[in-house]
Amino acid sequence: MLALRSGLTRGLAARTLAPQVCSSFATGPRQYDGTFYEFRTYCLKPSKMNEFLENAKKYMHLRTAYSELVGFWSVEFGGQMNKVFHIWKYDNFAHRTEVRKAVAKDKEWRQILISNLALIDEQENEITYLVPWCKLEKPAKEGVYELAIFQMKPGGPALWGDAFKRAINAHVDLGYSKLVGVFHTEYGALNRVHVLWWNESADSRAAGRHQSHEDPRVVAAVRESVNYLVSQQNMFLIPTPFSPLK
């Protein structure tokens, strides 16, 4: 089994990335490289949440032998309860295909997967790219996370990108929250942007939000971006003990 995983790792390292085509404010296939992030959301049976998380903690190393887990969280507030959210990173679509094939052949992981599927009510995934003006950040210490989801008007970043960037940077530059990443959906609900924030605690997040609402610089930037907004929602996320992002 270790030999299989080592061989896969060497094979993946030798991959040729997709051709690079640059654009000043493009997403999807016009990103600087093929790297994308798969968002997975699982709604669990109410009585099975703890069992699922214990299994994931014990056996996740089997799955992360094949591809990078960015973060794994339980959803504390926002939407359906008994829900987990996780992000996986891939170099390109060929990479994901190779990983999925290799994982399917791993008998040990497959056995764990079959038992865990009985604990899940619903599964959802989205394929996203980081917007070109943002890189994925890793907080220096443990905290809590907020995933804010913005449904934008059709037209893509060419229409709303500059205004949205100014609204995000207003919060970041003035220190109201720490930005982890801004993602634009490629597969899933189109014209959707996910913004992942980090805060030390739920209370520090609330305090920063109240202060930002009274800051005229933030208010002005946000007011411009809402002209392109259809709807928004958020989730408050608690990192699991085995999550790389703490």
UniProtKB/TrEMBL annotation:
Gene Ontology process terms (BP): mitophagy
Xref: InterPro entries: Dimeric_a/b-barrel (IPR011008), NIPSNAP (IPR012577), NipSnap_domain (IPR051557)
Secretion signal, residue range per the UniProt entry: none
Cellular component GO terms, alphabetical: mitochondrion
Domain spans labelled NIPSNAP: 37-135, 145-244
Record-linked Pfam families: NIPSNAP
Family membership: Belongs to the NipSnap family.
Descriptive protein name: Nipsnap homolog 3B
Organism in which the protein naturally occurs: Ailuropoda melanoleuca (Giant panda)
Gene responsible for this protein: NIPSNAP3A
